[in-house]
Input
Amino acid sequence: MEVNISDLIWDQFIYPRGGKSEKTIDAYVEALAIGAQFPPIKIQRVFNYADGDETTEATIILDGIHRWFAFKESGIKKIPAVEWKDKPLDYEKNKVALLLESAECNISHGDRLSPGDKKRIAREIATSDPECKWTESALAEKLGVIQQTVNTWISDIRARQKASRNTVILRLSRLGWPQEKISETVEINQQRISQITNNTNFSEIGNLLSQGHDMDYIARHYCACLACGTFISL
Output
């Protein structure tokens, strides 16, 4: 199918590169001038797409930004396109999936994603995914790298998220919340909640204090903020 150039949106959140390449666009413009044919771009219709203070429907480009710019600069009004999914997607609920699809399209053709681009994408997704719904193996598959590489890229982020999550669990446990309710709140199975709370020896805090350690040290020991460290010692 063909779509109107003016109906498409370049969404920079789901664009997997640090920026577009003017060199590539110029080369495509020259190729179009002598009659070159290009494969269709990949697009996706979405709803719940931010437009100022409101949300709207939109059609975003998943693959083919350089082709789209080249067609625009050449004065061409329509461009061949294929849809990723045949039904519109909720943009806010599918932002990460859209980004990863765009990234996967750009590891095998066109201007290949650089290792730096892949690392940035992995870290951005990990940062926005505290529940760890996107596993290291899933990210590795989409980005075309081995799982160990992704582990290296995002291990510090996952460690902070794990520490923050465990602190919340310990705080709720100290407040007397039942493990079933904690499990529902933090979306972790009850068996794991039990392991976290049972493996934390709160009586050790007294020993640390008697050894002359302050609450700042104790908070770091439990991978918590100072306020949380003080709280769980009560």
